Amino acid sequence: MTGRDRGGAWLLLRTGLREWLDLLLVVITLRLRGGRRADRLDPDDSPSPALPPERGAVGVRVWRDLRLAFRSLLSGGTTTGIAILTLALGIGVNATIFSVLDSVLWRQAPFRDAHQLVELTNFHTERAFSFSGFSRSLLLEWRQQTDLFAGVEAYESVSFIWNNGQGADMVPGAMVTPRLFSMLGGGAARGRTFSIDEGRSGTARLAIVSDPFWRNRLHRDPDAVGRPIRLNGVAYQVIGVMPRTFRYPSGGEQIWVPYNLDVPPPEIMAPRSMNAIARMAPGVTVERMTADVRARGERLGRAAGGPAGMTAMTREIAQYIDDRTERSLWLLSGAVGFLFLIVCANVANLALSRSLTRARDLSTCAALGASQTDLVRTALIEQCLLATCGALGGLAVALAGIQAVVASLPESLGTETMNPIDLDGRTLMFLVVAAGVATVLFGLTPALVAGRTRAGAMIGQEGRSMTGSRRSRRFRAALAIVEVAVSVVLLIGAALMARSFIKLASKDPGFDTRHLISLRVGMPAVGYADVKVRERVALEIVGRFRTIGGIVDVTTGGLPGEHSLISYGAMEFEHRPGSPRETLMVPVHEVPAGYFAALRLPILAGHDFRADGLKDAVIVNERFASAYFPANDAVGRRFRVEGGPWRTIVAVVSNTASRGDEGGERYGFYSRMGEDAHAYHATMKESEIAEFRTFLIRADDPDAALPNVLAALHAYDPTLVVWQTALVDRILADAVARPRVVFLMMSVFAGLGLVLATAGLYGVLSCLVTQRRREIGVRLALGASPRQMRWLVLGNGLTLTAIGVAIGLAAALPLGQLMRTLLYEVNPSDPVAIATSAILLGATALFACWWPARDAMRVSPVELLRE
Questions:
Q1: Backbone torsions φ then ψ of 112, nearest 5 degrees
Q2: What is the pLDDT of residues 149-189, one digit of tens each?
Q3: Is 282 in contact with 113 (CB distance < 8 Å)?
Q4: Has this prediction a pTM greater than 0.85?
Q5: How many CA atoms lie within 13 A of 244 on its CB side?
Q6: Do the Cβ atoms of 634 and 649 come closer than 8 Å?
Q7: CA neighbor of 691 nearest in space, from 703, 683, 699
Q8: Are the CB atoms for 788 and 853 separated by under 8 Å?
Q9: Backbone dihedral region for residue 688 (phi beyond 0: left; psi -120 to 50: alpha; all else: beta)
Q10: Whole-angstrom distance, CA of residue 348 vs CA of residue 477
Q11: What is the DSSP letter of 692?
Q12: Residue 692: is its pLDDT beyond 70?
């Protein structure tokens, strides 16, 4: 199809749309005027008595204005399409981020009368810290406080060994009191929830499963209710499937089993403690409840056999996220807010350009009798219609954006929130409000231009300058400056996050991660209750793995970031007797001999653990040694913690970076596996797993070796549960998922802002060249050279860019300080990030200015005189 054919087809389509709209509006108008058929209605008929004349006149006028607005937008062609697409991006991206913020930070817990639900926690009066976990006796004491609470229920997160007939898998779940679901107001999507009397002896082998468990593990079985499943080697009966939206205690639980506090079943291992949730009694205020809980807590604790100095306090049910995640979300919300300003400025520029080009049409309408109110109303309806189209496009962008965000969010946010991240009614309301705000921001200027139109003001100006008023030119230049300034802020923020993420992702972990597999294994409580047995079995499994072909080396003890225990207390050094003792919290890694060689973690001084070595030997990292032994004489020195046994340093190893987006190097030391087991490795009481052990396997081909490793493990003991298998490189990459997501989103927002700012600057200069064609022609006719015209336009554009960059830099420096806690080894005033952003924007602006300047060079004075 040729260009002429395409133009004819587009003209035919526009004409058809106009005629279709005219016919539709005529039918609607006739319905408003009495509901009679169009073929029976005389054009001179008056409105039906059933409809007041005023109402009919208003309806006809509104539909007429809508028809004119639709025709006007349709005649805009590409300009209208660009405006709608720009609005759709701005509104849709903002709605996407709002959905995440609303789900994680703002939205109330999705339970019946959630404002009446509170969580009970312990509170240490002297040390002023709180912690969860009540004993069964203490929970029963709180249940008797019926004047404060209509109900007190409890839960404990546990892990279940699920056997699907082909192997065992670990499934997160919770042990709950039977009335917890009814107190929350959560009903089952299939089957039922627990009844009051369930959870006792004989009724404890019941289970409720989550919607993901039913879909993914039970394969959407329509007969799932009543089906038996094996958990921890015992048959449980499924009595219900919860809805997709139910998430409690968090979003990770997939199985719930009952536990009756009044008559606990003897066949189920009792949890050490349970988290308490209560519903306030009718008529009880939050102030009274808070004060009474604090006053009664110590007395009830003593009655339940608890220690002195402990009371209780309440807190609102909410999703608890760490500070860095919350700050990351607020950073993204600020970025999309800036992007929204760029969008509104861009659309305002487009709308103002159209209003200036239609000034003669408005003047003609005023000369034919249209009032200023009519002109303003028509302009506002046109902008509202434009915003509506943008909002509909934003809805599609939000649907796709939410799916993309959920897929890219870290697991701690994507699955561990009680509220699912989706397009709900609150997000739709935000989308509508955003469209309204956008209408106000970009629609007032065209309305003001229309309202100031005077009859005949533009008639007779065929040969005069059509540059528009000085005020309109300044306003459009101001909009371009705002776009550039906000783009600078976004670019600098993205550049800071990019440099921070690159430094964090390229941080040397301190050991060789190539071809290294992490295999995390759960040892059941049955058969592995004795810690000495677990130590012996772990070493035997290491020996079996070494015999597999293609295995280079094997060890156990976990990754350097997976410490076994924490050493906390005052450090006392033998070489500094009587010196002030500093209290430290240091992670301790229990490792066997050969651990450092398997990980290729360099030993800088001393030697590895030896079978005939010292009993209390310890290996410290370089940071610990340099802090307390600056003379590099740490080997052979001794220290102890809180009067404990003296430990002798036998080696110093390289530092390892901590996992996660903090990335720093911490104090740490390594003890020989088994020496601290009796004190710190008790059997886990909350599940059938006694302990998790991590095996690190280096293979020539990890993909080929992993099936053989799993086969050898199951051949040794089929009851061992594989919890996680992953390449260490992937584990380290997942540890920086949060900064990676923030970096990617900031980059997308900055890229969109740069494109929109470039388009806005190009639009301003193109309109300037178009409006000043006659002036440029006169200048050329009087002797000005085309090069001078090019530099005139370039100078205008680069001046606007320079002003915008200066304002953006001034705003970015203080705003960058808010990002300080999210950056790793990068200063908020990093000169590389600032210079890169300014150069990138300057080069893009130069490209945007070049084409209008080229058009200015091609203006022909002869052609203008002929026009």
A1: -65, 125
A2: 999 999 988 878 887 766 667 788 899 999 999 999 888 99
A3: no
A4: no
A5: 6
A6: yes
A7: 683
A8: no
A9: alpha
A10: 11
A11: E
A12: yes
